[in-house]
## 1
Amino acid sequence: MTFSVSQLSTVESLLRDAARREIIPRFRNLADGSVRTKSGPLDLVTEADVAAEALITAGLRQAFPGCVVVGEEAATDDPSILKGLVGADLAFVVDPVDGTANFASGLTLFGVMAAAIVRGEVVASVIHDPMGDDSAMAVRGEGAWIETPDGKRRDLRVAAPAPANRMAGNVAWRFLPEPRKSTVCANLPKMGGVWDYRCSAHEYRMVAAGHCHFLFFNRLYPWDHAPGWLLHREAGGYGMQLDGTSYDPTRTDAGLICAPDRESWQAVRDTLLGVGG
């Protein structure tokens, strides 16, 4: 089964509609008691997450009968639904509000993400920016682009390769186990520049557009990374798990580096993890 640009436009419309109806009206307007903590102080869920995911899930099931939908909030409540990604003819992963900690803090760095997965292969993705009201989109083998509501498109392309000490990017080190966490943190100054926006939606949009060189992640929930990994790949980038194997949306513990090309990927890995780390 392939996935067409037309089908992706349907998915994108569902994400934009959810943002307009359920997310933007609650931005900087959350009711008392509408934010709760999940696994830690920066792992939050709001009423916007829950309402947007319900709307998107219902829309996907109507538009693609028989599909499997794995939303972040549903999977938090019932982790067993992640097994539905394995072997499904068509599955979707959905992150209704990526960057919830930013959203709940009134910061504008948050997004809405979805990816289509066919028998384990990520084939299409959307990362919608509710504040800018545009979407970064990709279809496997057909490139990546930014699309505005009036249909205008701008192709995405990753940055040119550079030496490690001249590459800038995002490093999400918080979930690394020791001693790897200490090793990576000690090596951060060896890169050209490092930050963490607490929002993979915008981090992937940045790297796919060439506004930074690399991304480094450890914990890989599919709703956080399947959309962005494909966007980066279709923009010409090279993204592999930390052990050098291909990205697998069914694995959550493999780590991921995205860079302009294979040599840059190796340079980021060698620098941050230590050669052979």
## 2
Amino acid sequence: MNQADRFYIFITVFLIIALVVGGVMLLTNRNKIQPIELVLSQAALPQQDGEVYIGGAVINPGIYPLMEGETIQALLSDVGLEPDADLNHIAIYIPGEGEGQSPQKVDINRAEGWLLEALPGIGETRARAIVKYRSENGEFKRIEDLLQVKGIGQGTFDKIKDYITVSHSKTF
């Protein structure tokens, strides 16, 4: 066998191998699952009107109206944030149907006189006494400390105890 014959045999074997490998590759690529393109659209959130209770590290905790299109940021600007408020952890609670709504509580360490007057049995005079006691003696540690305020007895306390709370400012 001369050198030219060997060259043609080599080329023929090479082409046969190339065809076999190419055919195998084509068959394996056909069996692969083709990727599916998903297109996600920005769906509008359902709008809901109602009321929202906002508590925690806010200046004016309470129940606020929620209007269509209003954002959480707008609600938070209404209630005022405490300096130590952690906006990375906001909890939203949606009550089940028929679940009762807890009454709005007034923070006796932060409430102004006009808000204290709204409590049952607390008028202008007692509200001023609470604010005066708080400014002279510091924050209330617990709601029962309200009994130390002149003009507030057990009867008045019993009327308002379910409507009041105390928060404590943090000192560093």
## 3
Amino acid sequence: MNSNIPEFLEVMLEEQYGKEITKKIIQGYQSRRYTTLRVNTLKTTIDNVEKTLQEEKIDYEKVSWSNEAFIIKNVNEKELKKLDIYNNGEIYLQSLSSMLPPIILQPMPKLDILDMSAAPGSKTTQIAAITQNKANITACEINKIRAERLKYNLEKQGANAYVMIQDATKIDDFFSFDQILLDTPCSGSGTMNLQFNNKKDLCTKKLVENSAVLQTNLIKKAIKLLKPGKEMVYSTCSILSCENEDIISNILKEGKADIVPIKIKGIEQVPLLPSKIEGTLCVCPNEYYEGFFVAKIRKR
């Protein structure tokens, strides 16, 4: 057993992926992850951010699936936070994996869009940027303190969204939406970073079990709120099938929704783990990416 990760987690990973892939996942947990950012096109252009980074002698790399995503090679988060482009809200520090769900959702202007578990706002502000503030975005958050953080980030990024402080499982069925992003609370089994040893204590068996119950309740509510024929994205920062494929499989069995295979240009650059459901993505943690699961589904 690898003493750096919880024993139950290593057992679950080996049962799901086998020894070889589990070894690769643990290597990903042990990697020092690069800082990544997203250009906020509501406030600036990609060219302006590139110019600033070059002037500051900050090395960066682009990714194949998003023009707005930058991998920073030679400075850390702390250094980036000193820059005007950070303080003005022209860039948002966000993991690459976290940028995938809004891109996969393909949010459209003029539509009613729900971000079901929105704080601190990384994906809400990204949806606002993709739609250039022309969509009707509702950002739901149960926790008052986290909702304040969400409002702060929306304002800083110049993103328009209505913040609903509410338990998402209890949103009134009177509401209906054209698109829904459900980036659900989870065990964080994909985001473990053994560079910071204290993080490993945060992922417990009880948390995995509780997360799966909440995820089931949230996705059932999302399906109710989604208009017929419309699409939603379900995502977690977990790589355990009990929080991902099993949740989706149960919804598919109810006959209310179908999988929409994920197709994005340049996605072949993303390191993937095998998924039990064809057309979904499970991202393998490494020095660039956190472990993450994304599925797109259409309501019948």
